[in-house]
Amino acid sequence: MTAEPKIAIRNLYKIFGPEPEVALEYVKRGVGKADLLEKHGHVLGLKDINVDIRHGEITVIMGLSGSGKSTLIRHLNRLIEPTAGEVRVDDQDVLAFNEDQLRELRRTQMSMVFQKFALLPHRTVLENAGMAMDVRGKRVREFEAAARKWLTRVGLEGNENQYPHQLSGGMQQRVGIARALVSNSPIMLMDEAFSALDPLIRSDMQDLLLELQAELKKTIVFITHDLDEALKLADHLVILKDGEVVQQGDPQHILLNPGDPYIVDFIADINRARVLRVRSVMRKMNGGAAGDYAGDLNERDNLESVLARSGGDTRLVYRVVRGDDTVGELAMTDLTRALVPTNAASAPAERL
After folding, report:
1. 25: helix, strand or coil
2. Digit-coded pLDDT (tens) for 296-310
3. Average pLDDT, whole number, for the chain?
């Protein structure tokens, strides 16, 4: 039996305007986003969203500007009220929460990391890192040890007594991540958290997040408009367009099996060799002896590293391992075929 999702989003709609319930009926009859605005004066934010966010995974929600991704994440802690639908956290209906329950959800169950850092300029790095505990009524001496611990883990040891204006953008965002970790919330909501950073710093922050996630196994909802970032971080990828889910699933599967022409266009310029992993291209063993293989590959290796190792020799076949176990084999001919972009599949791929 599949475990219940940490967060379950069911039939979620959001319509902005003076009479959203009336506009909702038009949407359910098939009126699109453009016509809803032009003919009825309402903006379609989200349309019939159904997503399971599983415990201990990074779910990335991506799309272009106006696709509804930031609107969606703000429904999870009810910063935005839906027009219709359901959001359940640990099988509890968040939309039925009273003010006290909602305040408790935001304080103890969900932390947010923002694009603009949202640090208090008059407080030190240490005090900013412990902000969630401060809101809960804790004194600095009660959260200082935890704040120092997480500031060290994100690379800010020795900066505890500095103020935000004394830090670079990347360092400020590290404070934001430390703040989320000090709160000890099981769910982290990250809305375009790295978008304001320079490319090299952004890559470092992505690596830091993956390193921390490997240890902590938080439930992370990450919003981005950048496909490379989404493919690097996501365990589960949700792609939005005009407020609707176009496709969702394992990011590797989506890349190899785009279910919509929109996705095909979206992934057209991606460096497939850098993003695709051996596990997505390998096949079952054919019973070959150890001597038949050119060597062993880890299932998580990307294809770019395999190309470099093979020297481009398409005759080679590698054994694929997961730890001490053999899980498949990779022929270089299969690898080269995987690098050729594909047309849209006839139907969207379901979640694996």
Report:
1. helix
2. 999 989 999 999 999
3. 90
